[in-house]
Amino acid sequence: MPDETHRTRVAPAAPGSRDGAMALLTRRRFAGIPEQVQHARSFVALAVGECAAADDAVLLTSELASNAVLHTDSGNGGFFEVSVYLGASVLRVEISDEGTSLETPVVHLIDLDTEQLPGGRGLAIVELCATRWGQSGDGSSGRVVWFELPCDGPAAARRAGI
C-alpha cells in the first residue's frame, strides 16, 4: 500500500518535513495494553519539553497509541513503538504498530450536533490538530501513523542538533 498522507499530497519516504532535516530525539517500545497509553503520553511530554505544541503532541499520541492497542495486532500481546523527531520548526511523532489485516485507518467525521458513542474520533482529532499526518505500511506486517506539529524556536533546533 502506498503512503497515505493528509493535508499534503506526498508523504516523505523517510522522516523529514518540508522544512528540512529532522533528528530522532528518542524512541521507545511499549507493551500493547491500554495501560501503556498513559506511559506513551508521558514519554512524549518529556521528549518535547517546552515545545509550544507539547499539549497537542500528547493528545495526538494518546489517540494513535490507543488505536494501535485497540485496532491492531499490537493489542493482542504485541507492542507499539513511539518515535519523536524534531526539525528546526517541526515536531514529528510516529506510532508504529504490528499491523492487522482487518482494518485500514479511516477518518470519521465528528457530528457536534448529535451524541455519539465514545470512540471513533481519534483520526478526526489528528486531522483537526496536526499540520500534516499520514500513514505508511501495508497493514498486515505493520503500519506507521505519524503527525507533524509546529515547534519553532532556537531551543528546539538546539535540542535536535540542527
From TrEMBL:
Residues 34-129 form the Histidine kinase/HSP90-like ATPase domain. It comes from the Bacteria. Keywords: Kinase, Serine/threonine-protein kinase, Transferase. One of its GO terms (molecular function) is protein serine/threonine kinase activity. This is Histidine kinase/HSP90-like ATPase domain-containing protein. It comes from Planobispora longispora.
